[in-house]
Amino acid sequence: MSILIMNGPNLNFLGIREPGIYGNENYGGLCEQIEKKAGELGIEVDIFQSNHEGDLIDRIQAAYSDGTEGIIINPGALTHYSYALRDALSSINIPKIELHISNVHQREEFRQKSVTAPVCDGQIVGLGLFGYDLALEAIQKIVEKSK
Ligand code: DQA
Predict the structure, then answer these.
(1) Predicted TM-score of the model (pTM)
(2) CA angle, residues 108, 105, 99, in degrees to nearest 5
(3) What residues does ligand 1 touch, defined as CB less than 6 Å away?
């Protein structure tokens, strides 16, 4: 099973940005955690991070024809306003899970709206980096079920 994990703007700054909200682990540590969990589950993962909306859209479009069977995406702040990212996600018909490290519902009002969640199968919010492990387990089940 081949899963694409996408992280949007500023997620490469994990461990540096607002540690009180996002924790002290850095992005490299998150990638290691994802690889470890994927290995345990027997899933192949491609981990992609970009600070640029267009690069994220290009990677989603590439997933249409590169054998990707599911997407886990933390779109960062693009979650709250990027209709272009939403359109890209909705244009490919594979399972998708949106993920947020922080509990966006406890934060500023602008974070409480997601324009991307309605085109995803489900959402994991506020469970820290552990959410990525849960998302991998969930997407594996969803993809298997959809076969
Ligand atoms: C985030 C929440 C967003 O509101 C924020 O802009 C991020 C990270 C999260 O993982 O909690 O960059 O997606």
Answers:
(1) 0.98
(2) 110
(3) 10, 74, 76-77, 79, 100-102, 104, 111
Tell me the β-bridge partners of 96: 71
Question: Is residue 147 pLDDT above 90, yes or no?
Answer: no
Task: Considering only CA atoms, give the Rg of the chain.
Answer: 14
Catalytic (active site) residue 22? yes
Q: Which domains does the chain have, with CATH numbers?
A: 2-146 (3.40.50.9100)
Following DSSP, what letter does each residue of 20-60 receive, concatenated? HHH-S--HHHHHHHHHHHHHHHT-EEEEEE-S-HHHHHHHH
Catalytic option among 52, 80, 100, 105: 100
Residue 100 falls in the annotated catalytic set: yes
